[in-house]
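Regression test attached.
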Amino acid sequence: MIDNLYQWTDKRLNISGGSRKLLNKIFPDHWSFMLGEIALYSFVVLVATGIFLTLYFVPSQHEIVYHGPYLPLDGQRVSEAYASTIRLSFQVRAGLLMRQMHHWAANIFVGSIVVHMCRVFFTGGFRRPREFNWIIGVNLLILAIFNGFLGYSLPDDLVSGTGIRIAFSILESLPLVGSYLAVWLFGGNFPGTAIIPRFFIIHVLILPAIIAGLIGAHLFLLVKQKHTQFKGSGATEENVVGAPMYPNFIAKTQGFLFLVTAVTALLAAVVQINPIWQYGPYKPYKVSYAVQPDWYMGWLDGALRVMPSWEIVFPGHMIPNAFFPGILLPGLTFTILMLWPIIEARITKDDVEHHILEEPRNNPLRTAFGAAVLAFYFVLFGASATDVLANYLSVSLNTVLVTFRVLVIAVPLVVFPITYKICVELQHQHRPSKTKRHNIVVRSPEGGYSTIEVKPRPGDERTHLPPIPVDAMVLVGPRTAQAADGASPTNGTDGGRVRGIFKIPRTYR
Amino acid sequence: MGLRLLRKILVPFAAIVVAASMATLLMGRSHVASPTSTPSPSQFSLTAAGSASRKAQLQTGYQLFQVHCSFCHGTRADGSTGIAPNLQGLGPGVVQLWLRTGWMPLKTPGAQPDNKPPAFNDTQIREIALWVASLKKGGVPFPPKLHLNKANVAQGFSLFTLNCAPCHTITGAGDALADGYHAPPLKAVTRHEVYEAVRSGPQNMPQFGPKNITPAQLRDIIKYVVKYIKHPVSPGGISLGGVGPVAEGFVGLFIGVGGCLLAAYWVGDRTERGSEEDQGSGEGPAGEREASHA
Ligand code: HEM
């Protein structure tokens, strides 16, 4: 019966033809290929918990008098957005858990995108032909950060309200158009009453839709262009080695979805995040010291803090201080990040297709550069906690600020040569193979000991593949003679058919 | 293949079930647990100690001051040494605050005095304060009996946000101010310290007179501080010291992303063993399979 139904639909929709190809898609075995999936699944968690929140959240800045179980707010005038988030936290069943899951998942989402991007960067996975997917990825990062900021602003509490205010003044600092843009976006001057409803629509609808679309494009390109892979285990520029989509990868990835959800749920159950009832509602005339944005905006906040107060005056126009850290820095950051594959290809004059990943150590210049840049942003993130640090270390805030001004420049300069040196050192190191071969020690009647080499256990035979010749690795074009018959230059050396290894020719449609 | 596959799905699924049930357990705790603050008796035993007459109190106060304070503040507490300020006319409340917080006697002049365990017990502190107050009238008195039952915490919260959060932060975690000064955390202060601090304005802290903050408003603030700053309502779990998003960011990155990385590491390299079996059924490498159906 089910079979018939299946046949019927298949004849019309041709599911099996298309999906067979998809089901046989090969996924590399290395764990670092799962990083992007963390991002994917935390997005799933975000959407699921976000839908729950939407059921209770009231996106309005209309002021009401709060009455509820949290006494320090009872009778205070707060916005409906704030009151509904408080209700979510205290009265809605599982509401607080959902809020905390949503917020932790947001942190994990952006964090895993960054980690995933680091993997792609340091292994050269962005090189031709995958520049497009890199650019999509960078856009996903920007949108994720931006949507996180919007979500963080929604509850309309004291801390996030201060963040919106900073965003407003950054926007205002744009030369020429700034103040018009800010007033247009906020529907008047800060704070107004339009910003929370607007942010809400962008946060729950527009950006998630764009993000989902881009994720789709990202995965589509991934399937079309096939994965990159590390060398070894018979992998060459011409094939993809790994497990097929069905059943292995489906099982793996399904389990992984559960695991990512479990980590998020555990964190949300055990560690409190963004206790907005302790912060109180946002009132423009109230300020608290020590307000920071979430970490993924933290580097911008840090940049605002360490930036010396320069103001550049053009004839007739002044560029406010906030422009440099608030707009120029992220602008440059994301432009360079997006164009990086092209920039690097220009520098190295490498215009060949690459499907085998580089080990970071084998490209010490890029690795050192990436590490230095990461260090730069990490120091900026640290700088967003200048006041907290000054308080904990009992030193003057000014001392901490000056220290960070120095560190922001010094740390990358130190990290670069050290990373470079480590890479070069590592290149000379011999790496042990992964699976151990067992030895049998025998004792002779005379009392002497000797070991007997044994055959590898079944399944372990291919641990000692001869290294793939260098000339076969680099500079092979996509349509070489070897590719046509599906054989790689090293095919003979691993003894014909080997269990657990799949090879398919790369075809370019 | 079936069994392996099943296990692969079931183990993580078990993990999620465990996590979820832990979540319900932990979140199930009463939501707005109102922190009970029964005032400790010592806070109220500030009235004249036992049988000692006022004169004897002044006498011991005088002696303690001469031994511990006079070389800085002068024998008549008038700041005549030039090292330390004149204490006359500040009122007993100020002296009591500076001694109970351990700010005085000062070890290293110049820096902002640190919170230390007080060098004297409550009776001695009272005696010193009484003696200093006997030199000149006025200033901040000893705190009156502070009845907080009727005080309004909502009012207190609002006033705290407006007047105190700019320095002490909204969670009362304390913060660094400019020029090496810092506003101390308010997590462990007593109701009398809040009273004395607000009325006297130690160091960089502004002085709030009864015109700025009425006695009723001050009681509201005090109730909010000793109830909710001291015992923040944290139904969401570990509160990370109330320092906000930076601590949350570190936890999110190292435990959240880190946990997922461990999970990735755990499942990531596991395909091979599964694929051995799966290979048994399907003949030939998958590449051939894909080719034949393409
Ligand atoms: C790109 C993915 C997303 C990110 C990074 C993100 C991030 C955030 C953050 C950080 C908050 C603040 C939570 C807090 O109060 O502590 C938030 C709030 C919120 N989010 Fe999202 N979110 C995302 C997607 C979504 C989606 C898809 C929906 C709805 C379908 C949604 C609905 C909401 C709602 C209603 C709130 C306000 C309620 C509250 O603050 O608790 N979010 N979001």
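Expected vs. actual: identical. Residues A 46-47, 50-51, 53-54, 57, 85, 88, 99, 102-103, 106, 109, 144, 147-148, 151-152, 154-155, 203-204, 208, 211, 274 surround protoporphyrin IX containing FE (CB under 6 Å).
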